[in-house]
Amino acid sequence: MRFTLNGVPRDLATHPAARLLDVLREECGLTGTKEGCGEGECGACTVLIDGAAVCSCIIPAAQVEGAEVTTIEGLGTDHPLARAFMDEVGAQCGICTPGMIMAAVTLGPRPSLEKVRTGLAGNLCRCTGYEAIYRAIRKPPVAL
Amino acid sequence: MLRDEEGVVPLAGATDLYVSLNFGTLESRRFVNLWGLRPLRHIGMQGDRLVIGALATYTAIIRSRHVQRRLPMLVQASREIGGVQIQNRGTLGGNIANASPAGDTLPVLAAADAVVVLRSAGEERRVRFSDFYTGYRQSQRRPDELISGVEVGPIEGTQWFRKVGTRAAQAISKVVMAAVRSPTPRIALGSVAPTVIRLPRTEAALGSGAGIDAAARILESEIHPIDDLRSTSAYRRSVASNLLRRFWSDSGPG
């Protein structure tokens, strides 16, 4: 399977029916992407395929052939959204956080509350009650 | 491959099939991956018919100006399917093929009098959507056929859609209704019978000027909801009846 992972071309001999989530975590060693429900409900495993948010737990590896995959690691170690999540305490246990951030990066800068609610409807958090997460996503980016 | 080998399941966006696979409830383990068949993603007009390729995702449907203009109730239904992640991957053809009585686009296609286009190695044929399902999770699609798309003719009247579930996003419908208000009203319901259904007697009553109370009583006799993990028969019956009333007052001439 040939695809681009966080900007780097990869060629893996992976089973075509393997879940993208397992390919990322076990074959590529990128454990930032988490498994929550394993059925596309909770969004913890959200990654981007060609810029669109998807649940990697229900993506067959064969469907990633030729695509560009971005995981939380692809955002680098000092992404403004990650910092906003820390500043606003938008994470508690942290399992949902990478998926929340990956869904949030597709919303563009300073999204409306309505847009955030809709855009993150597929990301569940059982700790925070969401308010801190929404604040973090709507926060204006701080200049580096 | 579909013609020559048994037990091969066509795989589109995988948003249903991979859930079953992950939970070990899927019998087949052999798939034919359709995702790369780009021509089946196309949404466009052929004459006065709206043609939606089977691999059009919900996101593509939501964004399509053709669908927004011709079939706004399908845009509404697509917005309430899953979350963004599912909308980016799930396809109209997959929703049809999965054949769940709770599929949210299915009442829309039923109320729109859509036609399903089926293609095999040897032929292409068209089946009216209202004739497509033959029983619970059973359809007229033969194992050697793929759903290539749907066609929808012009619709006169006001389109209406409403899903009732635990939550707007990610929840499977308890009851889902799509309807068209016109001199010959069309009403379709999901999650109240083994397949999505049209309500011909309720439609005829409303079309001939019966009052909404009489029509709602007919509706209650026309559906066969069950108790299951998502809801009860009694709740579904009263919600379906309330949805009819809501449709009628929302779409009314005022």
Structure description:
The complex is a heterodimer of chains A (144) and B (254). Chain A is α+β, with helices and mostly antiparallel strands and 144 residues long. Chain A has five helices and five strands; from the N terminus they run E-E-H-E-E-E-H-H-H-H. Chain A has a five-stranded mixed sheet, covered by helices on one side. The N and C termini of chain A lie far apart (37 Å). The mean pLDDT of chain A is 95. By secondary structure, chain B is an alpha+beta fold. Chain B folds into two domains: 8-152, Uridine Diphospho-n-acetylenolpyruvylglucosamine Reductase, domain 3 (2-Layer Sandwich); 158-250, 2-Layer Sandwich (Enolase-like, domain 1). Helix content of chain B is 33%, strand content 24%. Chain B is built from eleven helices and 13 strands. Chain B has helices at residues 17-22, 58-63, 65-70, 72-79, 84-87, 92-98, 106-111, 129-132, 200-207, 212-222, 233-250, and strands at residues 8-11, 30-33, 43-46, 49-53, 115-119, 124-128, 133-135, 138-139, 146-152, 158-164, 175-181, 186-190, 197-198. A five-stranded antiparallel sheet of chain B has the order 3-4-9-5-6. In chain B, strand 12 and strand 13 form a beta hairpin. The longest helix of chain B has 18 residues, at 233-250. Chain B starts with 7 loop residues before the first strand and ends with a helix. Classes of the chains: A alpha+beta (144), B alpha+beta (254).
SSE layout and pairings?
The complex is a heterodimer of chains A (144) and B (254).
Chain A: E1 2-5, E2 8-11, H1 20-27, E3 46-49, E4 52-55, E5 68-70, H2 80-87, H3 97-104, H4 113-119, H5 131-138
Parallel strand pairs in A: 1-5
Antiparallel strand pairs in A: 1-2, 3-4, 3-5
Helix pairs in contact in A: 2-5
Chain B: E1 8-11, H1 17-22, E2 30-33, E3 43-46, E4 49-53, H2 58-63, H3 65-70, H4 72-79, H5 84-87, H6 92-98, H7 106-111, E5 115-119, E6 124-128, H8 129-132, E7 133-135, E8 138-139, E9 146-152, E10 158-164, E11 175-181, E12 186-190, E13 197-198, H9 200-207, H10 212-222, H11 233-250
Parallel strand pairs in B: 1-2
Antiparallel strand pairs in B: 3-4, 4-9, 5-6, 5-9, 7-8, 10-11, 11-12, 12-13
